[in-house]
Amino acid sequence: MRFIPTKVHGILDYVVGVALIAAPWLFGFASIGGPAVIIPIVLGVGLIVYSLFTKYEWGPFGFIPMPVHLVFDIVASLFLALSPWIFGFSTEAPNVWVPHVVVGVAVILVVIFSQPQPAKVTATARA
Q1: For residue 8, is pLDDT > 60?
Q2: Which region holds residue 42: left if phi is over 0, alpha if psi is between -120 and 50, else beta?
Q3: Taking the CA atoms of the chain, what radius of gyration do you get in angstroms?
Q4: Bridge partners, residue 64, by sequence
Q5: Which pLDDT tens digit goes with each residue over 34-47?
Q6: Please, which pLDDT band fits residue 124 given cuts at 50, 70 and 90?
Q7: Which domain holds residue 48?
């Protein structure tokens, strides 16, 4: 069931992190300011930072175990997906709140299908 290797998950982490930072400008809602703009930027920076410290192929400082990284992903993604209602910008135009919900749900799906350990760790553990 978990068919996304950590090597692919890691690439997605950095791509999604940059996309979250750029989302307010990509989707044209940077001018409204407030939580709708701040949340994806902060979560994008956070995603990049904790990815750098994750013990997987793309984590140069390998400190955070992959299962903990996946918990961070779930918590951040739930917060992102629910943020339009938590902070009251769900009544804005769809280009403001839909990216928050879609990216949040998409990352949760990626986590569900991601392997909880890098391949070399899994192979070593089996031996």
Answers
A1: yes
A2: alpha
A3: 15
A4: 54
A5: 999 999 999 999 99
A6: very low
A7: 6-126
Tell me whether residue 73 is in a domain: yes
Is 18 part of a structural domain of the chain? Answer: yes
Q: Helical H runs in the chain?
A: 6-26, 35-52, 66-86, 94-112, 119-126
| Best CA proximity match to 41, nearest among 29, 57, 53, 55 | 29
- Three-state secondary-structure class, residue 116: coil
- Asked if residue 83 belongs to a domain, the reply is yes
Instruction: Provide the domain count of the chain.
Output: 1
Residue 1 within a domain: no
Amino acid at 38: I
> What pLDDT was estimated at residue 120?
74
More confident residue, 48 or 126: 48
Q: Average model confidence (pLDDT) for the chain?
A: 94
Whether 118 and 58 have beta carbons less than 8 Å apart is answered as: no
Give the orientation angle of helix 35-52 with respect to helix 6-26, to 10 degrees.
Answer: 160
